[in-house]
Design brief:
alpha+beta, Molybdopterin biosynthesis moea protein, domain 2, Hypothetical protein af1432, 4-stranded antiparallel beta sheet
Length: 423
């Protein structure tokens, strides 16, 4: 063929057998490589769900049947989509596209979380021997998070699988992601978000000085064990100094267990002496410790955690920060198991802070395989509402097996759902 170099093709004419180049950031799509030959309908559906109008292809690496002698894309024929598909095929294609889009978004989130978890492991491994490297890595992780959070005008909190990371990295990243989103909600600028993010990521770094059995708070600790556990704050500040962290970040590490009523530790300082960033991290840290305690048998649902904090602990937290947190997380945060107004059961998988009462859910529907269940945006379904929150064990067995409620909550951020993205 005469013209074998890259050329652009309209996304509607893309076919299995073509070699594509995705001119996107590697975190903006779920594929391992940016350039590859299309080999399945699933890959094709995912690319069509990425929101791009055209894609670059290599003629010489693609199957020759799609091109004429000059290397141009041939007139659509039997290998291309029929020009007048029937309504049933239209419906199937629409569902495939929606599934591909939702799977692609989830895969991007999980890929980003996995990279961040590996970076956090590097930070903890280098904190003692190479403290400056640990500081550089933490700054890089937070810079990437903030780029993503600030780029998206409307950002949603997304539930991921709890297998995405081991317990210590999962907690650190949960606290970091939710703190940054809350900081954005509270109007912090980029410099303030950077300080908040690094403090949140490293808030428990001092636990590396503790024996494994003391790294997670236990209500049955002996007095001496409780005292040793609480020393992780001072250890963290000391490690932060060796890493060369800024004063504001050190204050967040030192204040992440303080409470506005003076009941926290180690300084029992009150609200007027707490940094606004420390108020955020202390609040989010408490929430994640309720959802993801050291002993998973003691965990509560996200809805229960919010209710417990508001009913029994609100005197410990800054009132305006608590109010912003509840608005952002929604009455039913991601991970909540709920019963709908039509009596069906569902799992909340994503919440957009601008529409907290209308989250995105997966509904138990025995007619649809669980792997093909579409995420439904309640914002677009005014006739369906949430009646109540349930404990996972209150679900009928069929609904429990289908929805697979997480034993541990794992959060990340994603582009908020646009109108028409859900069924």
């Amino acid at each position: 063929m005469g013209e074998s170099g890259p050329q652009f093709i309209d996304i509607s004419r893309l076919q299995i057998g073509m070699f594509v180049h995705l001119d996107l950031g590697w975190m903006d799509h779920p594929f391992p490589l940016n350039s590859f030959k299309l080999s399945s309908q699933e890959q094709l559906d995912v690319i069509r769900s990425l929101g791009i109008d055209r894609v670059r292809i290599s003629v010489d690496k693609s199957d020759s049947e799609f091109f004429d002698q000059g290397g141009k894309v041939a007139t659509p024929g039997l290998h291309l989509v029929e020009s007048h598909p029937n309504p049933e095929e239209n419906a199937r294609q629409k569902r495939r596209n929606l599934l591909a889009k939702q799977h692609a978004s989830l895969q991007v989130c999980e890929k980003q979380f996995s990279v961040a978890a590996k970076s956090f492991k590097q930070i903890t491994e280098s904190a003692f021997s190479q403290p400056e490297l640990a500081r550089e890595l933490s700054a890089r992780v937070i810079g990437g998070f903030i780029d993503g959070i600030l780029v998206e005008e409307d950002t949603a909190i997304r539930l991921l699988s709890e297998k995405a990371g081991e317990k210590s990295s999962l907690h650190a990243l949960n606290v970091t992601i939710i703190s940054l989103l809350l900081g954005k909600t509270c109007g912090l600028n980029r410099e303030e978000l950077t300080e908040l993010g690094e403090g949140a990521l490293l808030h428990d770094i001092g636990k590396m000085h503790l024996p494994d059995r003391l790294r997670w708070h236990d209500q049955h600790f002996l007095a001496v064990e409780r005292e040793m556990y609480q020393e992780h704050v001072a250890h963290g500040v000391d490690m932060g100094r060796k890493m060369g962290l800024a004063k504001g970040i050190l204050l967040i590490i030192g204040q992440h267990h303080e409470c506005v009523d003076g009941s926290g530790y180690p300084g029992r300082i009150r609200d007027d002496r707490l940094m606004s960033a420390s108020r955020i991290v202390a609040l989010v840290n408490q929430y994640d410790n309720l959802c993801n305690p050291g002993n998973s048998a003691l965990s509560v649902t996200p809805h229960e955690a919010l209710s417990l904090m508001f009913a029994n602990m609100k005197q410990k937290f800054h009132a305006a920060t608590m109010s912003s947190f509840i608005r952002m997380m929604g009455v039913y945060p991601p991970g909540s198991v709920v019963q709908l107004s039509n009596d069906r059961h569902a799992l909340v998988v994503s919440v957009n802070s601008s529409r907290p009462l209308r989250p995105r859910i997966i509904i138990h529907d025995p007619r649809v395989p669980s792997e093909e269940a579409l995420v439904l945006d309640l914002e677009t379904e005014p006739t369906i509402g949430i009646r109540s929150s349930l404990k996972p064990m209150q679900l009928p067995k069929a609904a429990y097996d289908y929805l697979s409620p997480r034993k541990r909550m794992c959060y990340f951020f994603e582009r908020a759902c646009e109108s028409g993205d859900s069924q």
